[in-house]
Amino acid sequence: MLLDQFRIGPLLNFTYLVADREGGEAVVIDPSYGIDPVLAAIDARGVRVRYILTTHSHPDHVAGCREVRERTGARVVAHRSAPLHQDLSVDDGDRLRAGPLEFEVVHTPGHTPDSVLYVFAGQVATGDTLFVGECGRTDLPGSDPAAMYDSLLRRVVALDDGLVVLPGHDYGPTPTSTIGREKRENYTLQPRTREEFLAFLRE
Fold this sequence. Notes:
The longest helix has 11 residues, at 145-155. Helices cover 24% and strands 32% of the residues. By secondary structure, it is α/β, with parallel strands linked by helices. Helix 4 (145-155) packs across helix 6. The chain has one domain: Ribonuclease Z/Hydroxyacylglutathione hydrolase-like (Metallo-beta-lactamase, Chain A, 4-Layer Sandwich).
């Protein structure tokens, strides 16, 4: 599998280019500001971008959608509740294919109502739901700490320990991790009741 991780934009965003092989069908995940290195890689790899997968609608995760769409003809994919242009709306449990690669949608509201993860080929793109060693903010307009509890302590911890975590920002000690490592080391994933989690977020 081809998997390129780009740290671009002023907020240390990660954008991903994923394909099964050089010249194959591909997806771009969370195209951020300063998308030129990703466009150059698309050309260099000779891939055909079928989908632009957005993990949520914050501007730093969708700023490059238009340029990628215009350059490649790819379809913009977002959760059905996302307040942005969508060529394809998805919900929890939906699956998309790009060549032989299958991407499963996991709805994880909390940071935003439309936050999703994409699980594929031993990887999980977590956007701003889960970072390496941290979780996304829940004090922004549209954020919901109680929903984040359900997303992290019920949905994320239920994922396979071996999945490689591909976060939305370079905020941790390493650019990637695994679900198993995050369950052991990430203080936001430690077992808590809902009330304890909400109190923890208020601290």
